[in-house]
Amino acid sequence: MEEVVIVGAGIAGLATAVALKKVGVRALVLERSKELRTTGAALGLFANAWVALDALGVSDKLAALYTPMEKGYITNVKTKSIQEMHFPSTRNGAQQRAVHRKVLLEVLAEELPPNSIRFSSKITSIETQVEHGLSTCIVMLDDGTIIKSKVVIGCDGVHSIVARWLGLRPPVYSGRSAVRGLSVFPKGHGFDPGHAIQQFVDVGKRAAFIALNDKEVYWFLGAKCPPKGMEKGADPEMIQREVMENLAKDFPPVFLDVVKHSDLSSLTWAPLMFRYPWDILFGNLFRSSVTVAGDAMHPMTPDLGQGGCSALEDAVALGRHLGNSIAKHGKLVTQDIGFAIEKYAKERRLRVATLTTASYLSGWVQQDGSSRFMRFLRDVIFYGLLWGRVVNGIIEYDCGKLPSVSSLPSRESESSI
């Protein structure tokens, strides 16, 4: 019997567990893999993510490791023209940084009590039952284990079992795919981590690289057509060769050199999926004491870099609503959980539906079409006029703070929660 079961030990799952710990609730995190998964190598965390990380109490640990991103450059592969791009400052002073995904997961995991994460635990089904007027969730694992819990939170990614149980429609293919990798320069790459956000746009393709530190560079390439012969789990050398000899063959030498220095173990290819915004606005994001967070709720394309950021927002919002319920009643009461989760879902619907829509449209503008109108729309309207306003409107979001410990039950009474 557990208080809370979280399915998935990705960014959303670990961050949610940390948020719940801070409000006095211990959660069991079930992860199907044998260890923390680091697919994707790295990610950009914008100011709104750092607000969430601050609420979780881990922002200082990460900020000390990475240089803030201040500006970057966008190169048109065909015309060779270059535009300068600035990242707007925020009211709270938070700055954008690119971080290793593995480091982010490890920092979050270190905040949790021992044995909070159970690896090699694949769920097969979820049920709810009512006993004495109270609803209980039953999670079944493929090894025959049965876990009862007051709350189940699905943080199990794009193809979420929990989202399917809630009745959410499956994500759809965006028409684009992405290759991601981490490049290592043992003697140093020479890029300024604060100014090294280099983007390259072409017909149906967009790529970028970001310096993480003095020796490592994160890069990605998105394209309308998947690499030839690529399947999930494809040979890394084949992925690298396909990028250099086909997809990015006309890109500037500086990008090809980054790809050439790739750590092959970090290379991945995957189709970019997203959930229709109307499915988020009107779909079942919760049922009783079961809900979803992160990609399980709102898979989106990475064109605005908000996938991981919004997952961190989810964690704080969910912890805040459950924590407020505890502060009010002195314990996690089963009949109050549904109200807290309903408030969480209501708060997140519009926000994440907007992010999903904006991310998809951003990708469409930046890499779809070859007509003069599309180039004008991308280079003049989007990059020239809208970029700063769009990004600033997104990253100014404040997901709030978690209830203070003083307002919550003491450690001595935690066993009664």
TrEMBL record:
The keyword Cell inner membrane does not apply. Pfam families: FAD_binding_3. Transmembrane segments: none annotated. InterPro entries: FAD-bd (IPR002938), FAD/NAD-bd_sf (IPR036188), MOase (IPR044560). Gene3D superfamilies: FAD/NAD(P)-binding domain. One of its GO terms (molecular function) is FAD binding. Residues 3-355 form the FAD-binding domain. Keywords: Monooxygenase, Oxidoreductase. The keyword Oxidoreductase applies. It comes from the Eukaryota. PANTHER family: FAD/NAD(P)-BINDING OXIDOREDUCTASE FAMILY PROTEIN, OS04G0423100 PROTEIN. Belongs to the 3-hydroxybenzoate 6-hydroxylase family. This is FAD-binding domain-containing protein. It comes from Eucalyptus grandis (Flooded gum).
